[in-house]
Amino acid sequence: MNTTVSSPGPQEVIRHDDGELMGYVHPCDGQWLPTTVFGAPLGTPTSHADAEAHVLAVGLAVLAEKWWFRDGGEWYSCLLQEASPERVRIQVTDYGHPAAEEYRVITGDDLGTLARRPR
Known about the structure:
SH3 type barrels, mainly beta
């Protein structure tokens, strides 16, 4: 008999007192990667308990920091205005970008263009 064991998928991290989605932990090479609500890494892979604790500690606070988005191969600074698993609304704060001070909505695979620090 052939059996396959599937690895678990991402798991929501919910704040218990109010039910707020704080982020996710994703399986990663036998460990767990803490991420924001839209999948950006919050740290390095670690144990499930430590990854979950990290998401609970910083998952929402980091959304208020300066972020970066990649556009045309260049990195530009932005502020996150709204964040959900499906979309992030940003305000471009980099005056080197032609859309400085404008708002953009980032969805789908483009969510991977957001980072806490330019890469």
